[in-house]
Write a structure and sequence with these properties.
The protein is α+β, with helices and mostly antiparallel strands and 91 residues long. It contains two helices and four strands, in the order E-E-E-H-E-H. It has a four-stranded mixed sheet, covered by helices on one side. Helix 1 (60-70) links the parallel strand 3 and strand 4. The chain binds zinc ion. Zinc ion (ZN) binds at residues 18, 20-21, 38, 40-41, 43.
Amino acid sequence: MSNVIKLRPTTTEYWGGCPYCGTNDGYINLGAEHWFVCGAHQTKWCVGSNLFSGWQDDTEEQRAESAAKLSGFRAVEPIHMTREQQDGARS
Ligand SMILES: [Zn+2]
């Protein structure tokens, strides 16, 4: 029996937050895909592709570096802002 309400982390990150801490450390391009990461928890999640410009300018070397870096992160389901937060952010 437990009446303890487990607190889930919340996030204020538009592109989603790490399910453990609710933040992110920015994104890494993997080709045209954009992966947000949390360095503290080694998590990553893809928010889509070709949303942010700049990935076309990555050199082969940078792409290999990004791929190697991302391979060390675990793909997770990010947490998102609540509807209330999103409404608040708009006003
Ligand atoms: Zn985290």
